[in-house]
Design brief:
There is one protein chain. The radius of gyration is 24 Å and the shape is globular. The chain is built from 21 helices and no strands. It has 523 residues and is mainly α. The two termini are 41 Å apart. The protein folds into two domains: 26-249 and 325-514, Up-down Bundle (Growth Hormone, Chain: A), CATH 1.20.1250.20; 256-315. The chain has helices at 2-21, 28-35, 37-58, 66-69, 72-89, 99-115, 122-150, 156-175, 177-184, 199-222, 228-242, 256-280, 287-308, 315-324, 328-359, 368-401, 404-420, 431-454, 462-469, 471-490, 497-514.
Amino acid sequence: MRVLNLVSCILRLESKINQMKKKPALSFWQIWNMSFGFLGIQFGFALQNANVSRIFETLGANVNDIPILWIAAPVTGLVMQPIIGHLSDKTWGRFGRRRPFFLIGAILASLALLVMPNSPALWIAAGMLWIMDASINISMEPFRAFVGDMLPGEQRTRGFAMQSFFIGLGAVIASGLPYILSEWLGVANVPEAGEKIPPSVRYAFYLGGAVFFLAVLWTVFRTKEYSPDELKEFEEENIQSQGLSHFIYRTPVELLKSFFRQGFIWLLVGSGFSYLIFWQGWEKELYVISVGLGVFGIILLITAWNTRQGLTRNGLVEVITDLMNMPKTMKQLAIVQFFSWFALFAMWIYSTSAVTSHIYGTSDTASGLYNKGANWVGFLFAIYNGFAAIMAFVLPVLAKATSRKMAHAISLVIGGIGLISFYVIKDPNLLLVSMVGVGIAWASILSMPYAILTGSLPAAKMGIYMGIFNFFIVIPQIFAASILGFFTKFLFGGHAIYALVLGGVSLLIAAVSVLFVDDVDQK
């Protein structure tokens, strides 16, 4: 009898210990506070996405040159996000490990938003896009890892849905700001004497800078992070709940031959492609792809040299080693992300040109009709982001009824049809229906891939893998920026509308690809 009582006591004690180690569920308002900063981040992104092409065209950019001018955004994300992820994984101070990056990025991005609409020349606007996008990325990347840090596995889908809600809410307001200021508040929508950018656009950027800073500040001061010791206690629970028992991690030494082999391959491919571009006299924008491949090969060779010298504890080797050790689910999602974000980038950079020329019938940037069409594009962006905010809470229900993969596939198909429909629609008002479809896809793109991904990631490397995952967001954007100008000029006869159709087809391909993803943490 005593033995049974002793066993019972031991079991109860073990149960209490396990409960102590389990990451506690957060309340609705705690998840709200930790996600609120995304409202400001999306203010910055939405103003950028809806208005930068307009600013470029107003400052004299040709429609065929717009994609290469946009190259700043994805290249900046490609470089910044893994660095910020790596640094935030290793940071701990008074404001935690993610929140310092929230705050630094917010200050820099807010200043950039104030300067951008006052750019006096095209080259200055292009440079400000680099600075603005880098600053936004400093704040944004740690927010994705923040969900993995703070929430147990069963709450992560809800956490990413909350982020999607704030992304949609912020974007719907910010995208429509020039339209609201001009149509509802009477702010001038054409440039004043001696100015190049309309007051409606400039004031929208000023408001965006203020909202960005204040929203991120709310999250910084209203949220607390777990200490490294607490996160270490949660590690065993994270591994069990995320299905990481089969995660195999190879050391840099074990990957040495792969570093050398793949480095030489990518360097040769990049060099050969560069020579082909030169020999054929193709558009210089294509050098972005060829040089990028060669640079990646050089980075791998540098990593190999460092590894051979025993210098394996530097940031470059650690990031590249983590890249080579990506979980299977992450590799599968990379394909889905490539086609999804190629489509989104095509929409962001060509919607203004496509709508104003194909539907409004004008390319004169100084005309009232062009600016009316450009404002309508901003309003359409507000609609798809607003509907995405609503769908952020519907998608988890659909995912529970079917699966996260099926919910994402259905959303992408609807979004693809929405983009393709731009070609056949002649009444601008009917584009609202098209953008509802895009909004469904956008809500899913912002939440479902991350909900699927976090279940396959080791908790100690949440930041760096979120940063690496961003590769598969920015690489398709770089690819799009490099080839869409070439396509528009030589294949589409200068008609931007066909870029949107191509984006719709790309979303359909992404929908098929997601069905082959292994969701190891489906709940």
